[in-house]
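Final report, closing paragraph on structural work. Over the funding period we assembled a curated collection of sequence-structure pairs, and we close with a single example.
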Amino acid sequence: MRIAVLANLKRNAPTWEGMAPDQWDDLDSPKTIGNIMDALRAGGHEVEFFEANILPPHNLVQNLERFAPDLCFNIAEGHFGDSRESHIPGILEMLRMPYTGSRVLTLALALDKPMTKRVLHYHGLPTPEFQVFECADDPIDADLLNGDGDLRFPLFVKPSREGTSMGVSAESIVHNEAELRAQVQKQIERYNQPILCERYIKGREITVGLVGNLAPTAARRIGKRALPGALTFFPPLEVDLNAYDASEAGLYTNYMKVELAEDFRYLCPAPLDPQTEHELKLLAAAVFRVIDCKDVARVDFRLDETNDNTPYILEVNPLPGLNPIYSDLCVQARANGWTYERLVNTIADNAAARYGLA
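Its predicted structure, as stored:
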């Protein structure tokens, strides 16, 4: 197949005075794009990279029409707006060009963490209680209060629509109302978006990566506690939080994901008892279903050490990173005995099968 790889490179991202230093931490490097292209070529495909921007000098629409791909391998994060990860897929659908990964609505939904949590809550899936703050002095919702009417401290504060743990640091854990409102104000000023505050789950951080697609009959079986065979579940990965400095406060912070990426400390497969591992995979499949993910996703959890390690869903990433060395999904695939080439080409094959491509 002729495959167009679509992504946003950090070096091509816009800049401006006063820009937050972590503004483009979720964008890709030329090395990662080169690795993806090499993997697809190893699969026998003709491949070309295009910067995922319709503006000159990139002119994505015209370049795609010239290249005429059979399939687009999309990992574009976008630059601006509260649905930026869905912009390129929206353009591809207008052009009637097939692409890998989740569709427009799913990508817009998953980027908005509070909206995702509302969908999870509707379906009875466990996610920490939360409130969205538009202003630092917003009244406190009942969801953040305990049975005595007091705030459920500690609480956790982070931006609503960012990836790569942007905004996540030791300061994200707040222990009183003054700290809560100060941190909300700080993040509003820095990220110019609503801020999510949720009950802090102290415990182990686990992520489950999966590839495949759910047929309706397979999706129904999730409720019967059977893992759907249409999905491949990679070994759960645990971030080895004890291997990092106490300044990270037991969190998988932006600093760890960016500055310490080359020295990522993890346990994969995570040391879990079979029942807990099955439960996490079952929940990951349920999230994949209700968010309507396609081809690939990664679901992040915390195990509540104050409540018998009960799992809570933190978020879902339908555009997981694909750096072959340290991206969570790639580490998990490697632990499953997969080469990087197999992972990348399986994602492409899943998409091709959905579109009925040879």
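The longest strand covers residues 203-212. The CA atoms of residues 120 and 266 lie 27 Å apart. We thank the funder for supporting this effort.
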